[in-house]
Amino acid sequence: MLKINDLRVEYEKGVPTLDHYDLTVNEGELVSLLGPSGCGKTTTLRAVAGFVDTAGGQITISGRDVTKIPPNKRDIGLVFQSYALFPHLTVNQNVAFGLRMRRVTKKDQSKRVDEALRLVDLEGLGERRPAQLSGGQQQRVALARAVVIEPQLLLLDEPLSNLDAKLRVNMRTEIRRLQQRLSVTTLYVTHDQIEALAISDRVVVMNHGRIEQSGTPEEIYKQPQTPFVADFMGFENHFAGTVSAVDTDALTVQAADTTFQASQASGDLRAGDEVWVYFRSESAQLAADAVPNSVPVNVLLRTFQGNAIEYVIQSDLGEFKVRLPEDQVRFDAGPAYLSLNPDSLIVMPK
Amino acid sequence: MKISRWYTLSLGIVYFFLLGPFLIIFAASFGAESTLSFPPRGFSLDWFANVFANEQFIRSFWTSLQLGLIATILSLIFGVPVAYALTHFDFPGAGFVETLFSLPILVPGLVIGLSMLNFFVLFGKFDVLTGLMIGHTAILFPYSVRVVSVALRNLDPAVEEAAVNLGANRLRTFLLIVLPNIRAGIAAAFILGFITSFNNVPVSVFLSGPGVNTLPIAMLSYMEYYFDPTIAALSTILIIFSIVLVQAAERLLGLSQFV
Ligand SMILES: Nc1ncnc2c1ncn2[C@@H]1O[C@H](COP(=O)(O)OP(=O)(O)OP(=O)(O)O)[C@@H](O)[C@H]1O
Ligand SMILES: [Mg+2]
Contact B161/A51, CB-based, under 8 Å? Predict the structure, then answer.
């Protein structure tokens, strides 16, 4: 559906904000762009919408090359972070604007506006002005205004970032339901991992204007392929090691004096490769005695965190955080063993 | 306690010097004596009658009114596109252009008036009214650009992009979305421009000529010969005229948000 091919965007000549950027969004799919502030998410969206000039590459929508087509002729629905409702128009007029520009008859306009407002649960508010609506309601108007034109492609730029936490969770479910009901191809920008995982068919993690990894929410969450993605997805611990043996679906990694097994396909890794080993603080265990896949540690600190107990521990491999369920045996400061399940280790080339 | 006493005192001083002169003019315009004096002795409305009987005042009032309206409208016709360009396009030298446009605010009015007179003598054979119109448009133009720019900068650029995204071209976006949202700014520029033109002396003094005077110039020449309360009566009328104008605009458009 949407195909971005080798895109390059420069705000300043010679300094690319996006470079060698390839992205495909399939028909009816919701893909989210996830990444830290300044990585180029909004820029990508604006390039697709036609508001920033491209310095190279190609953008096609349903096979039509739109790279040189002006933004008012692209037929894309766009929801802005600030909503960008027209302050002087009523809700009805806001939603009708796109239809008016398409010379839809007055009768059809009002029918479709009503339909769109019903879809976002705003029936009866059509005569209000944006200033007379709550943030959540304004958000819905923005959504209705974008989908009422039945765009081939829907773009949303951090649509929930101005709402409070509870409303955010409700709205994201609603956006997903709406998107599935209309089966509209959607590109969704967020810097919130949980939001991206919850709402998407596919997540694209970006960093410094490039795509780090793209995959289903589960793949991104469980199998990060680069240190950046691992960090970003909440793998709090890592240490350096060397691959000592490779098997079909297992790796042996030597780190300091300890040998670890990791149940992971070797991919490009070979014996002798320098690697990083990542693990989540929730997936590690503490033990009183040595067990397989464990390393002696020194417990430095224990903090109570409601449903979990967090330990800060020190070992030859570095300092780690371990989070154990609150109802498990507690460890006091002093010697213990950090035990790592082979399934919970992610090994990636250094 | 102390602070509030100081506050009251300083407020009192400011009001005294700000409003005092107006009150004197106001009171003097009702005096019965034939020289401008305070406190006035007696009461009379003769001086107001005198104002309306003076053909110079009536004629120059219409000239000033016409001039103010036309020059303000012209300054907006030129100023709005310039303000739009300054706020929407990042062209080389934008900063320089902006400074250039503020020159008429920074340069003393007398200097502008004199230069314009020279300029017209050198390059144009305009009649007096046209000359005045060009001169006034030129001094109002920077105000229009500034006030309208402020209004444009207050409008979220995403709002315009939303219109474009929904299929509107640049012109329709301007007419349907931008213009309605800066109308208070345009009204503010209009009032500010009109009053500036209506009160202007230094430029008008050079550009007015035989038979064509603006009201302030007519007032000045009247005062060269007479020192009776007619001028006070006329000033009272003008003050009320300005207050009504500004109040009406404020009611209508919420102008205070911009000035
Ligand atoms: N109009 C512009 N002119 C110059 N540089 C810009 C412009 N817009 C963005 N940039 C730069 O381009 C880079 C990417 O910006 P972008 O807005 O795409 O980031 P983002 O991923 O959307 O970030 P955020 O999560 O903060 O919204 C940033 O370094 C930013 O400073
Ligand atoms: Mg952004």
Answer: yes
